[in-house]
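Fold tokens
===========
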Amino acid sequence: MKAFILAAGRGERMRPLTDHTPKPLLSVRGRPLIEWHLEKLVAAGVQQVVINLGWLGENISTHLGDGTRFGLHIAYSQEGWPALETGGGLHRALPLLGDEAFLLVNGDVFTELPFTLLTLPQQRLAHLTLVPNPPQHPRGDFALQDGMVIDAEPRLTYSGIAVLHPRLFAGCTPGAFPLAPLLKRAMAAGQVSGERYDGLWTDVGTPERLQALQ
């Protein structure tokens, strides 16, 4: 399975730290945040990773190179600036990801979730990892019912970690668009499964949360 890391965002809430450093390269516990993801992906047996680039993207590609020193191959999906939002960025990268399901990791989360546990059941378009609602997102995103993700109450928070199938993007056209409407459409069709994770997970979205994680 290939993996896709979302790394194109500006990180507005993290300013001024992200004025000159893209958020995935901010140091967390002594190393760039994105390197934690790469290490976990290698441990899960992933050999090919696609990373989308937007804000200060050349800093990321220069730092990571082709991935050889991490034991994998990295390809880059160039978006320029402004970036294409989550859905648009994924759609643009589909030629690099191929026709099979792929692991999606948001570049600005930190977690101890073992990526080896994530799979996509047959006949599903997405499998989402949900976590308890953090203080900054008390209302959550989606509900989990009998192993299926639905747009209902009570809600948990989407972790930014999922397994997606390229068919989720059927009918989409190039450009900037969010991922959530595609997921909700698939939920309504009973094609989104999920699981709850109660271990360490943090949305590294502000300097305060970054400092707490350190």
